[in-house]
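Reviewer 2 asked us to include a model.

Predict the structure of this chain.
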Amino acid sequence: MAFDIDMIKKVYKTMPERVDKARQIVGKPLTLSEKILYAHLWDGNPTTAFTRGKDYVDFAPDRIALQDATAQMALLQFMQAGKPKVAVPTTTHCDHLIQAKQGAAPDLKRANETSSEVFDFLASVSNKYGIGFWKPGAGIIHQVVLENYAFPGGMMIGTDSHTVNAGGLGMVAIGVGGADAVDVMAGMAWELRFPKLIGVKLTGNLNGWTASKDVILKVAGILTVKGGTGAIVEYFGPGAKNLSCTGKGTICNMGAEIGATTSTFGYDDSMERFLRATDRNEVADEANKIREYLTGDPEVYENPEEYFDQVIEIDLDKLRPHLNGPFTPDLATPVGQLGELAKENGWPIKVDWGLIGSCTNSSYEDLTRAASIAKQAVDKNIKAKSDFGINPGSEQIRYTAERDGILKIFEDLDATIFTNACGPCIGQWDRSDLKGDEKNTIVHSFNRNFSKRADGNPNTHAFVGSPEMVAAIAISGRLDFDPMNDVLINEDGQEVKLDAPQGIELPPKGFDVEDAGYVEPVEDGSNVEVSVSETSERLQLLEPFTPLGNSITGAKLLIKAFGKCTTDHISMAGPWLRYRGHLDNISNNMLIGAVNAFGKKTNFVKNQLTGEYGGVPDVARDYKAKGIHTIVVGDHNYGEGSSREHAAMEPRHLGVAAVLVKSFARIHETNLKKQGMLGLTFDNENDYDLIQEDDTINFLDLDQFAPDKPLHIEFVHADGSKDVIKVNHTYNQQQIDWYNEGSALNLIKKQNA
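Predicted model (structure tokens):
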């Protein structure tokens, strides 16, 4: 069934005229990304050619997707917006709050018991405001969106950084914080700086052990975790057309790991096949009517250097399988070279777990390719040397895979089939085999491998690969195993070589499911009651933030973060997910993972009022109680990773007025702005070294806060000496208005009133 078909038809009806007009205004052929962007302008038909990387533009996204961990705060904010119903099609997906431990049935039962309060809240809010609700166990948000809602040429935003997965079906799909989603749900424009464009030309065909995952693992190695910041990555070329739709989704999904605004592919036969296989013939028929508008113009792909800001070319015939890691998703190593590198760096060679699934690699094709390796192990009497865990992407995939005997193959290898949910990928993993900080290695088909992410252990070395490579490495139990060249010894003492994986793009007997897990909202939700207990540990109604004002003096340094500081460092997931709907409680994890530049410890900062050291949230609360603002200082790509706005709301709640860094990840910088804070960057990066532990901070010209105008901050050191530094910002006038009102939500409420 095609959801929201009338909306899709409306998009397709206006798209040709808008694209033609944009091509005329820009004065040259257009990339797919430009076509979708110009077709979704808030003001309708294009009238201006926008400058990439500079102009802020108002857009009108077609739909919104929320996952349960971020939906709580997004919907708590929307409840304050004064609207009776969401203005665009919106869905809520319960996939983050289910811990992987024993297996699908007991884990789902336990989640429904322990998180019933949150699930009931999300269900009732969704019902009240016209939001489609996907129950716990229905599947991982991005796979469910790909199977049900994504459509070529559309624009969507979602409160998860991996919303970009929908680029596999030719969308411009972008991860945002909850406040951005609230704007669109409330019927307002969504603002984005017009992205730069990176083109990736793919030639040749994947073969042997190489998978779609290896394309993005290679790209991550080229661009690094910040190389895509502020850009859309558009894939094209004959190699792109040779990839499956879900394979394209995998590539787009991990574009979040290079900081890209999003990634996308032009509409082609593989997308049409996927639409028809997922019961969306009507969408495919409508897309076919405007097919040339759903991909880049031929001239663009013939001479990409003239139309993209950067071009990368990858020959799929020559691409090698990769494993990326540990501790960062851009440390790319071809499989055959990993053993030597591991020995040089002291990475544990023994592999304890192989994990297959996540929003990145949990499609039917992914499971069949990994199962083809698992079946060889079973048939050739090879005992897996590592533990196995599988997370199917949706109930539709799980049901179909069980029907087709795919899951039984994994079970014959003693794998644990977890719930159709995120599980270990986001730290929702009760790992039974290790305690404490024991050094160990795992391999998985997820997207991120930051320290502590999967199991809370800082010494778990996690490596990212394709599902089939994860299967082979886990079966061997060794990080240095190269299935293309090495042999295994089976239980009979015989040497056995694994054959290359074989996958099935789409189920030959079609997809099937008994209960997909979807709940349609009532037509009129005005009588639906939403209650939040005042004594709840997990949910808390929001109080508006007070404006910080244009005179901030006597502020204190809270922490000077050293090195990588992702959203996992700022607001950890794992066990903290239970507090995602309670701002005060979850603020107790604020920056506890960040390394303090003074002393190189985590969660250990100086309280200048007492001279004693304490946890970051505790010190922040003490300053706040005494009416003293604080600032946070950081390094490059600060806020890399998840879209979670808690990483901005928690500092705001605990009295942080400004975050000053060498550079920001896009989503986090926007989240800070939305919450009425100052997100600033050093004009001279070396000024980072001037900031001392006992500094008192004065903003000298905040009363002149204006677009394109730098600010100046005075750092008064303990010995009485001072340094005045110049800092930059990217605020436009509307974003300054958010700051002046205390938050973007405050401004929405004021306008609605």
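DSSP finds 25 helices and 30 strands in the chain. The first strand starts at residue 56 and ends at 59. We have added this to the supplementary material.
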